[in-house]
Amino acid sequence: MVAFTSIALAATTLLGFTAAAPANQVRSTGVIHRIFAGSTTANGGLHFEPENVVAQIGDLVEFHFLPKNHTVVQSSFDKPCEPLASGAGVFSGFNFATAQGESKNVFTFQVQNKEPFWYYCSQIIGNHCQMGMSGVINQNFDGDKTLAKYKVNSKNTKTVQPSADILKSQGGWIQPNMPL
Ligand SMILES: [Cu+2]
């Protein structure tokens, strides 16, 4: 599926996006996990669906954004609603606002390892992370670091943005939202 990645990158370039795919690409499996940021039903819309995903190294994770203006930020379990150290981790940027239906672009990143990948929405209007808008890829189901616990620990936190430039994505790339 190298060809797929190449096409995606070409499309990204053509559209003039500056976000490049991460340099540390592993071999693609060809598997794409689609996750919706937002919901028409669950948790007043403050929900990732599905919010608990098992993925293999090399899989792609593709976020589709529903109203209103959500993000995806990589986090640690221990510090909910905070990004990894400055400049590190995955961040979609605030590039996917939509008043109705899906945003015209998606945000994609590649799974690089089997470590649990915690993430949250950094929209502060409505305190999305504190309200439970978070998710995980490859949770350790034998351990006590669960998504339910992450959500509980989120409640009394303050959301932190990954960088001063909240439009600048990192760790993944922006692509057109292609019909299936
Ligand atoms: Cu949100």
UniProtKB/TrEMBL annotation:
Q: Does the keyword Nucleotide-binding apply?
A: no
The cross-references to Gene3D superfamilies, in alphabetical order and at most eight, read:
Cupredoxins - blue copper proteins
Keywords linked to the UniProt accession: Signal
Does the keyword field hold Transmembrane helix? Answer: no
* Signal peptide start and end residues: 1-20
Q: Superkingdom of this entry's organism?
A: Eukaryota
Matching SUPFAM superfamilies: Cupredoxins
Question: What is the name of the protein in this document?
Answer: Cupredoxin
